[in-house]
Amino acid sequence: MPLFELVIALLLAGALFAFWADKIGAPYPALLALAGAAVALVPGAPEVQLDPELALTLFVAPTLLDAAYDASPRDLRRHLGSVLSLAVGLVVATVASVAVAFKLTIPHAGWAAAVALGAIVAPPDASAATAVLRKLRPPHQLLVILEGESLFNDASALLIYRIAVGAAVTGAFSGWSVVLTLLLTCGGGNVAGWAAARLHIWATSRVDDIPVNVLLQFIATFAVWMIAEHAGLSAIITVVTFAMTLARRLAGRMRARHRIATYAVWEVAVLVLNVLAFVLIGLQAPLCRCACSRRRVGHLPGRGSGRLCCRHRRAGWVAILLHAAIARRLAVRRGAQGADIPSYGSGLLASWCGMRGIVTLAAALALPSGEVPFPHRDVIVFSAFSVVLVTLVIQGLTLRPLMARLRLDHDDTVEREVSIARQATARAALKALDQHGTDSFASQTLRQEYEARLNPHGTPSKAGHDRLAALQRDAVAARRAALTELPLVSYRR
């Protein structure tokens, strides 16, 4: 019962903070993490220990599937170079810079432990970035790149993490084992995700009950993640491939009622999981405080941690600036113009969006802690928690002012594509009506409705669409009000 009461209290606090954050224009992940840390430091507060495996499965798998399902394969292919440079190149650069900074701070530490810390703090949190960016509405091109990065950077960082932890525990390192691990985790994950998606589509094709269908989607998400983990594959790559295959295959098959219910349930579920995840991040503060009190890490909160964080941040900024410069040069070479050319301002904003979250903390807590603990485990856990809390709070709360200061050019890509889609669908509807003739009253009424979606020149008018939508909303509201005011009279024959 106390656990249930704690969960309800956390959800209530998360809902209030999320509502308040929306009112003041601040991202709710930052406020939730800060509130969790404040509650955890209160004397007598309940201690909540995060299970690393459960955290990755429960919080990362649904959030990752939700983001991957909405991702556009066309946009990802268009910006594949930028996405891979961030998801792979920047992760490797961050791992290297943090490992070097860790060795300079603690010279007697081994390289395996240093690389493990770099892999832990390298990947930005997908749920944090998505939750923040969708509220701020940055340029579409930048949003596509950052969301695409968030889908794959965890996989590259956790692959390095797995290799480093294995090398630290066994004391052996083999290049061939790295190649085989890469092929198995990434290639096998893609194949397994595609096969699981096809199997899920076949198994649920005859399920018409909406609640059962949505429940099977959640079960399939967790099942795919756990099977990939047990099989030694990359669970992240498997879930991303599974989600993108589902989105492509189910796009034209799902009925409107199923689609509306599915999106509504997933939106609420992802919000609940994000609220719990960010509050639980803050509630790990006692663990960090316990690590700080030990003699082995007593020196770290001072000069050592400052040097480590400064070197990590400086390396990240340099890498982002270099990425922006290279991306601009490549865009100019392929003939891009105007808003299609990435700016240095977008590079700075991308750097400031690199908030760490549940993946970083779970990976740190998953380090071996038995009779022979992982080398410098307490230092790594403390550093990971510090990076997560600092990036969520400082970068999260200052992201909106930074974006306003940069004054990035407005990107109307989405509006233009919506206009093209409306034009295509209206013309397809008119063409279908032509096959049924124009004699009936119903046909003429529908034709007038679809012709109203086009201006006289045959192209969509945004003002016309907005006016038509407003009239439809007013008409529906009037019908609903009239239905509500009808007298409750029983009519008998």
Approximate shape? globular
Can you give the helix content as a percent range? over 70%
Element pattern in H and E: HHHHHHHHHHHHHHHHHHHH
| β-sheet strand percentage | under 5%
Annotation field: number of helices: 20
How would you characterize the largest beta sheet? none
* Terminal-residue CA separation: 55 Å
Structural class: mainly alpha
| Assembly category | single chain
Could you describe the 3D structure shown?
This protein is mainly alpha-helical and 493 residues long. About 3% of the residues have low confidence. The chain is globular, with a radius of gyration of 26 Å. Helix 14 packs antiparallel against helix 15.
Would you kindly provide a brief summary of this structure?
By secondary structure, the protein is mainly alpha-helical. The chain contains 20 helices and no strands.
List the main descriptive attributes of the protein structure presented here.
mainly alpha, 20 helices, single chain, globular, 493 residues
Topology:
Elements: H1 2-24, H2 28-40, H3 52-70, H4 73-78, H5 80-105, H6 111-121, H7 126-136, H8 140-170, H9 175-204, H10 210-230, H11 235-250, H12 256-283, H13 285-292, H14 300-333, H15 344-352, H16 358-365, H17 377-406, H18 413-434, H19 441-451, H20 462-485
